[in-house]
Design brief:
The chain has one domain (4-203). The chain is 84% helix and 0% strand. The chain contains 10 helices and no strands.
C-alpha cells in the first residue's frame, strides 16, 4: 500500500476544508442545538461508510466512469443543497423558529441524521475521493479490497473526529446566540452558504 502518512496528510486537508457537510452541521448546530449537530455529523460519516463499501465493490468506479450517472448525482446533490439553503433563508424571513410552533414542528419531523446522510451521498466530490484519491494509494493485488477499506476507514475516522468536534463547538457557540435577531442573521448566512454551494456543485465539472 502507498504511503499512509501522505494519505493522512491529504485527507486532513480535505476533511477540514469548508464544504456542504460543514455548512449543514453549522446550520443544524446553530438552529437546533448540540444533538442535531452531532446527529448531522454522524449521518455524514454514515454516508462515507456507504461510499467506502461502494468503492470496495467497484460500484463507485462504475459511477465515476458513467458521465450521465455522475451528472445525475451532481445535479441531485446541488438541488438538495439549494433546498436546504432556501429553507434556512425562509426560516430567517419568518423569524426565529423558537417563536414559531409550526416551524418547530417541521424541524422535528426532519431528521438531522438523514440530512447529513443525504448531503454526503449526493456530494459528487466525495465520489471523486473514493474513485480517484484512494485508488492512488492502493497497490494492485489480492489485497486491493482490504487496502481500500483500510484507507476508507482512516478517512471516515478522521472525518468523524473532526465533524463531531466541529459540531460540539458550533452547538456551544449557538447557545451564546439565543436572541431572535442574531438567530435570523445566522440563518441568512448559513442559508446563503448552502445555496451558493449547491449552485457551485451544479456548475462544476468533474
Amino acid at each position: 500500500m502507498g504511503d499512509v502518512v501522505t494519505f493522512i496528510g491529504v485527507v486532513a486537508v480535505i476533511v477540514v476544508l469548508p464544504g456542504p457537510d460543514m455548512a449543514l452541521v453549522l446550520q443544524n448546530g446553530l438552529a437546533r442545538g448540540r444533538r442535531a449537530a452531532v446527529e448531522t455529523a454522524i449521518g455524514i460519516n454514515a454516508g462515507l461508510l456507504v461510499w467506502a463499501v461502494a468503492a470496495a465493490l467497484g460500484i463507485a468506479a462504475l459511477l465515476h466512469a458513467s458521465a450521465p450517472a455522475f451528472t445525475v448525482l451532481k445535479l441531485a446533490g446541488a438541488a438538495y443543497l439549494v433546498w436546504l439553503g432556501l429553507r434556512a433563508l425562509n426560516e430567517a424571513r419568518r423569524g426565529t423558529a423558537d417563536a414559531s410552533a409550526g416551524c418547530s414542528a417541521t424541524r422535528r419531523k426532519t431528521s438531522p441524521f438523514l440530512q447529513g446522510l443525504l448531503s454526503n451521498l449526493l456530494n459528487p466530490k466525495i465520489a471523486l475521493v473514493f474513485t480517484t484519491l484512494i485508488p492512488e494509494f492502493v497497490q494492485a493485488g489480492d489485497s486491493a479490497v482490504a487496502q481500500t477499506l483500510l484507507l476508507a476507514a482512516i478517512f471516515i475516522g478522521m472525518g468523524l473526529v473532526w465533524l463531531t468536534t466541529y459540531a460540539l463547538l458550533v452547538a456551544k457557540v449557538g447557545e451564546l446566540f439565543k436572541r431572535s435577531a442574531i438567530r435570523r442573521a445566522l440563518n441568512v448566512v448559513t442559508g446563503t452558504a448552502l445555496t451558493a454551494l449547491g449552485v457551485r456543485v451544479a456548475l462544476t465539472d468533474r
